Amino acid sequence: MEFKAKQETEKVIQFIQDYYQKNHLTGAVLGISGGKDSAVVAALMVKALGKENVIGVTLPCHSKEEDKLDAKLISNHFDFKLYDFDLTNVYDTFQEQLKEIGIFQKEEKENSDINLKPRLRMATVYYLAALFTSLTGKPYLVAGTSNKCELFVGYFTKGGDSVHDIAPIADFTVSEVIQIGEVLGVPEKVLYKTPADGLSNQSDEDKLGVTYSEIATYLEEGEEEVSEPARTKIKELHERNQHKFVIPTYRK
Fold it and tell me: Between vectors from CA 231 to CA 225 and to CA 236, what angle results, nearest 5°?
C-alpha cells in the first residue's frame, strides 16, 4: 500500500492538536539529537503547537560536536528555542562514584555505561518540562522520538528514551519518517543522516545486525518477505526485549 506522506503528516499534526486541546496542554520539550527522528518530531510539534511552545534541548555526554551542530541546524530551520545542557560532568561524577565502590571492571559495565546516558538525558528533559510548566503556568509535555522499527525490536533504553508523554512517530517506519520529514522540509543533512545512537560509535544497523528496511518489510509485508537470517534476527530481538514493554504486576 502506498504511503501517503502529506496526508499522514496532516493527520499527525491534527492528532497532536486534538490531544493538547482536550487535555488543556500548551508546550512540548524534547531532546534534539541531531538525527532525523527528533528533527521530524520537533517539526511536527512546531506545526501543531507553534514555535513559541516548543523547547528543544541538546544533551551532550562525551558526544560528537557534529550532532550538536546538526541539532542547531534544526532549531534554526524551524525557529524554536534550543538549550544546550551538557551532561558530561554529571556522567563523569557518576563514574567517580563507581570507582569508589571499587567492584566493577570496565568490560563488566560497558552496557550499563551506554544506557546511563539516555537515562540521564530523560531525567533532564522531564526536569525541564516541569520547570517550564512552573515558569509559564502552562503545562509542558515530553515528546518521544522513537519510530516503529526501533520499538518493534526493542532498540531503546528502559527508563531512558522509552519514557515520554506523547509519541508522534511511533507508528511510522524509518522510511515513512523520512517521507514525513520531506513533507515538513527537514534539512537533508539531518534527514538522510546514517542513524546512530551517538553512544557506541556504531550505526544503529551495525548494532542491531539487521537493516531498518528489513524490519519495515517484516512489519509491513510479512516475515516471509525478508531473508531467513534477517527474519531470525528480528524475531530474536523482538522476543528478547519483551520485558521492555510490559511490567509484570501481581494483582491480589
Answer: 155
Question: For the purposes of burial, counting CB atoms within 10 Å of the CB of 165, is it exposed (0-12), middle (13-18) or buried (19 or more)?
Answer: middle
What pLDDT is attached to residue 139?
Answer: 98
CA distance 139 to 234: 38
Q: Which residues of 79-110 are buried (b: 16+ CB within 10 A; e: fewer)?
A: ebebeebebeebbeeeeeeeeeeeeeeeeeee
SS3 39: helix
Whether 208 and 155 have beta carbons less than 8 Å apart is answered as yes
Q: Where does the pLDDT of residue 134 fall: very low under 50, low under 70, confident under 90, or very high at 90 and above?
A: very high
The residue among 3, 9, 20 whose CA lies nearest residue 43 is 9
Non-local CB neighbours of 54 within 8 Å, separated by 6+ positions: 27, 28, 30, 42, 45, 46, 78, 80, 81
Enter the C-alpha cell of residue 241. 526485549
The model's pTM is 0.94
